[in-house]
Amino acid sequence: MEAVRNVLKWVLVALVTGFVGYVGRFGAQWLIERARARRRAAGELSPQRPPPRGSSPAPRPGPTDEQKAEKKRAKAQAKAAKKGAKGQR
Description:
This protein has a domain at 1-47. Helices cover 72% and strands 0% of the residues. It is built from 2 helices and no strands. It is flat.
């Protein structure tokens, strides 16, 4: 009987948490939209469209192929040195 009560308690906690999260998110979106509408009415904010879905920012420059090859060589040397030290034991 105690186990059933405990399970029901946790189910109720999960449901209440989900409800609070949903209402909180909905309320936050409503408040943000209301603030934007006020700014637009005051002329402070021009209407903006959200960025299209799937678009990504410009790619950041990463390491060049030369740098990658040098890193691989260094890693292989370290691994060979470690393996050689292990074999001498």
